[in-house]
Structure formats: structure tokens, C-alpha cells
Specification:
β6 (96-103), α3 and β7 (127-132) form a beta-alpha-beta unit. The longest helix has 18 residues, at 71-88. This protein has three helices and eight strands; from the N terminus they run αβββββαβαββ. It has a six-stranded mixed beta sheet, covered by helices on one side. It has one domain: 60s Ribosomal Protein L30, Chain: A (2-Layer Sandwich). The protein is α+β, with helices and mostly antiparallel strands. The radius of gyration is 21 Å and the shape is elongated. α2 (71-88) packs parallel to α3 (109-118). The structure holds 2-acetamido-2-deoxy-beta-D-glucopyranose (2 copies). One 2-acetamido-2-deoxy-beta-D-glucopyranose binds at residues 28, 45, 89-90, 150, 152. Residues 1-18 form the signal peptide. Keywords: Signal.
């Protein structure tokens, strides 16, 4: 009898341990970065702690408007918006392992690099793709997206 109970208990424990793990992800949202007015999340986080952000541009969260027409200002605001979204996922710039940067014109490349570089540790830079595209939504000059690992 005792052996039978032990066998049943062991079977139940094995069943729980071996049950297929359903992978999930959650939406990250914050008021400290612009709220999307289109069908997307600011970012998502997988159950293993990988964060994927949407593209961040130079819109100021409090006004909902592009900060200005200036490339440098848009670049700084885009990076700040990215930082705010990362923070909502318990991550920061140092947790970023990959970035994608879109520019409205390839002549923005040097200035973009100069400002981009100020936000990261030069000994541990994320991998990156950066390219010019024909147009960026809302007449933006730059748009930045990243992948990061949450600290929690
Ligand atoms: C960030 O950490 C806080 C405190 O541990 C937690 O409540 C929150 O759910 C975390 N955020 C995400 C997106 O995991
Ligand atoms: C920059 O990254 C290097 C290599 O991972 C690390 O040793 C150093 O402490 C980091 N510096 C800062 C300021 O975080």
C-alpha cells in the first residue's frame, strides 16, 4: 500500500515536472514615453526576460508632439523615450544587446552616431543595424528600436 502511494506520488510529481511549459510574453507600458496611437505596444517582455521595444521617435510624452525639427534634439528625445520604455521593463541602456536605427536621410549618420554613442558603454556596445529609409512616420528624422535583457 505504502509503495503504491509512493509510486502514485512520484508519477504526479513527474507529470508536473515534465508538463510542456507554455511560453508567454507580456506588454510593457509607461506614461514616461509617448503612448502609441496605432496598433502596437511600446514594448513586450518574454517570460525569459527578453525585451523587444517598438520604434521610438522624438515625440515628447507630455505634449504628444515631435520635440522640434532638429535632428540632434530628435535623436536625444528618441533615446530618452527608449530609456523610459526600458525602465518600465526593469532594464536600462546597459542591458541593451541590439539596436536598429532608422534615419530619414543618410547624411544624419555622423550626428546620429555621436549622440547614440553617449548613451552606451563604449566597451560593451550593443550590436546594431542603422540605415536610411525613404520616410519615417510623423515626419520623424530618426527612429530607434532595441532588444534588451530585463534585470528581474
Ligand atoms: C519590474 O519590477 C517590478 C518590481 O520587482 C515588478 O513589479 C514589475 O512587474 C517588473 N516589470 C516587468 C515588466 O517585469
Ligand atoms: C563598461 O563595460 C566594461 C566591460 O563590460 C565594464 O568593465 C565597465 O565597468 C563598464 N563601465 C561602466 C561605466 O559601466
Amino acid at each position: 500500500m505504502r509503495t503504491l502511494i509512493l509510486l502514485i506520488a512520484a508519477a504526479l510529481i513527474m507529470g508536473v515536472l515534465c508538463a510542456p511549459h507554455k511560453r508567454t510574453w507580456r506588454v510593457i507600458s509607461t506614461d514616461k514615453a509617448p503612448r502609441p496611437e496605432n496598433p502596437r505596444s511600446q514594448a513586450i517582455i518574454t517570460d525569459s526576460g527578453v525585451i523587444e521595444t517598438s520604434g521610438c521617435n522624438g515625440v515628447v510624452p507630455s505634449t504628444g508632439k515631435m520635440i522640434s525639427d532638429d535632428l540632434g534634439e530628435q535623436m536625444v528625445q528618441s533615446m530618452r523615450n527608449l530609456g523610459a520604455v526600458l525602465e518600465a521593463g526593469n532594464a536600462s541602456y546597459e542591458d541593451v544587446f541590439k539596436c536598429t536605427v532608422l534615419m530619414g536621410d543618410i547624411s544624419y549618420y555622423d550626428k546620429m552616431n555621436q549622440i547614440y554613442g553617449m548613451f552606451f558603454n563604449s566597451s560593451k556596445l550593443p550590436a546594431r543595424m542603422a540605415y536610411a529609409v525613404r520616410e519615417i512616420p510623423f515626419k520623424g528624422k530618426v527612429e530607434i528600436q532595441c532588444s534588451a535583457l530585463s534585470r528581474d
